[in-house]
Amino acid sequence: MLDGMAARRRLTGSGSPAGSVTALVGLALGVGACFAPTPRDGLPCGPEKSCPLDLVCRLDGTCGASELDADPPGIDAAVIDATAVDATVVDAAFPRRCAGRVDLFDDFDQPGAGAGIAIESAVGLTISEHDSLLDVEFAAQVDDNHYGGYATTAETPTADLCVVVRVNQLPNFPAIAYLKLRSVFGLVGSITEAEFLAFNNELYLRTLVGADATNHDIVPVDLAEHGYWRLRMSGGDVIWETSSDGVDFFELKRATVTLPSKVQARVGAGTQMQAMGAGNALFDELTVGTE
After folding, report:
1. Neighbours of 139 (CB within 10 A)
2. 22, 40, 177, 281: most buried, per Cβ within 10 A?
């Protein structure tokens, strides 16, 4: 920094153009030496160690830019921040399911998971995209506690969060299908989540805090009436809503639940008990955004 100050003194005391250039170069070098940025990408993080404000804690336990900040081409897992990015392609094809910003949209029209999406799978479950659908296919027999589907790869801020999916087909009893907001970190028994869970022709509006599961309501499930599931956060409340057409949503329940400041959105299917002949769960039009 002394070199920079000396350069400044030479700049103010010299009328020579060459002296001015030399002084500016010296000043730049001096300031750069004093204020060189500290590398932050890749810093370790976890439940006890957060990242700088403009970074997120990724699934590998390191800090980095949100993978939802990229703007991949096409409509598959597209539209990043609809207030700043032209979203007319999606808006022309699909009604806006979340009133505010759209962080991720996937209509499953291309093979493989889109940008910002990770595949979760287990033995006996096959996860694929075909016919513009996300398919969770069960083997003839699947053991208990096996789950598969898609999860957002980056943590999403919980405040005013809105997550929507279209459910085209539910698996056969005793398999389940779900849409959930879930804490990223935590050992078994300490996970926090809010979810729709379809089981045995009923739709459970459910939260899990640690080992305590609460069914806030249970309604008969009819995909003609409940074909779209929407989870919203508003003022500390979780709101469960469904729709028959993806346009008009009706509130089924709301409950005050303390979720972490950032969560993952997950959609998929699985087994809470051994399942035989469970068939397939089919989903479409996943939206992650804000209200």
Report:
1. 15
2. 281
pLDDT digits (tens, 9 = 90+) for 226-270: 999 999 999 889 999 999 999 999 999 999 988 888 888 999 999
Residue 259 has which token pair? Answer: 């979720």
Phi-psi region of 114 (alpha: psi -120 to 50; beta: other; left: phi over 0): beta
What pTM was estimated for this model as a whole? 0.70
Q: How many CB atoms lie within 10 A of CB 63?
A: 19
* Burial of residue 39 (number of CB atoms within 10 Å: 0-12, 13-18, 19+): exposed
The tokens describing 266, both together, are 């997950």
Tell me the average pLDDT across 94-116. 78
Are 99 and 164 in contact, with CB atoms under 8 Å apart? no
Taking the C-alpha atoms of residue 22 and residue 8, their distance in angstroms, rounded to an integer, is: 10
DSSP 88-114: HHHHHHS--SSSS-EEEEE---SSS--
Q: Where are the beta strands (DSSP E) in the chain?
A: 56-57, 63-64, 102-106, 117-120, 125-130, 133-138, 141-142, 146-152, 156-157, 161-169, 175-182, 192-199, 202-209, 212-220, 228-234, 237-243, 249-256, 262-271, 275-276, 280-290
Q: Rg of the Cα trace of the chain?
A: 25
Structure-token pair, residue 103: 């962080």
Residues 201-236: tens digit of each pLDDT: 999 999 988 778 899 999 999 999 999 999 999 988
pLDDT of residue 197: 97
Q: What is the dihedral of CA 26, 29, 30, 35, to 10 degrees?
A: 160
